[in-house]
Amino acid sequence: MRFDEAYSGNVFIKSHPDYNESEAVIYGMPMDWTVSYRPGSRFGPSRIREVSIGLEEYSPYLDRELEDVKYFDAGDIPLPFGNPQKSIEAIEEFVGKILADGKFPLGMGGEHLVSWPVIKAMYKKYPDLAIIHMDAHTDLREHYEGEPLSHSTPIRKAAALLGPGNIYSFGIRSGMKEEFEWAKQAGLHISKFEVHKPLKEILPTLAGRPVYVTIDIDVLDPAHAPGTGTVDAGGITSRELLASIHEIAGSDVRVVGADLVEVAPVYDPSEQTANTASKLLREMILGWIK
């Protein structure tokens, strides 16, 4: 862990050089050890940082500038290649330190399994935590081909820890029939196909509660984000996702941490996906870090 000095590699635009003075910490979780289709998301965090230099520092949506928020870029967590269990342990320890220091954790993935250890660390601090999950996929499997550590399992694991009724999934359009049936029986909230409209209806019920938001970039239609491991047609537009981020920002929900995962730059030579991800992160920083 490096909290004593600024990360020596490329950093997200306008990152603050001092950890102790910062309100939030950006960090990368470069892991794609358990993906079921195409690897490459371990390169997502570094590329999102690199393209962020092309961002405007001002958000006309929120009328704020990046210099209004002090956030420290801690770089990527050093994860043992090919070892999901030790990687999960390292991520949980890393985020636990950030939370102990009273800072807002904002993670970049990496495959979606990386959200699971973050949620565990968040739950230790916020036992009444709720999860807002935006994704193409349910991620409710108990295992994938017999392996419980899979990027298709993090929301099922979170439901077991927090209780299914505290999980709110949006934009879902892919998953096993059994996953949808289990969610319905267990009381997990799934909004299929759309994000903004059902999210707007749900947010008042979460007013005042600590909420962790996890966004899989594949909630976007492949036309908007082709650079991801498991593309799935029929997704939302980048405009709808931005509107959803802003809807959360304008609500009474208390966002206490977030992540953006599954950006795989190798599948998008136009860099459209990485550039979109960097803009989404800008809006998350300006909208959710009060």
UniProtKB/TrEMBL annotation:
Mn(2+) binds at H112, D135, H137, D139, D216, D218. Binds 2 manganese ions per subunit. Its cofactor is Mn(2+). Keywords: Hydrolase, Manganese, Metal-binding, Polyamine biosynthesis, Putrescine biosynthesis, Spermidine biosynthesis. Pathway: Amine and polyamine biosynthesis; putrescine biosynthesis via agmatine pathway; putrescine from agmatine: step 1/1. GO terms for molecular function: agmatinase activity; metal ion binding. GO terms for biological process: putrescine biosynthetic process from arginine, via agmatine; spermidine biosynthetic process. This is Agmatinase. The gene is speB.
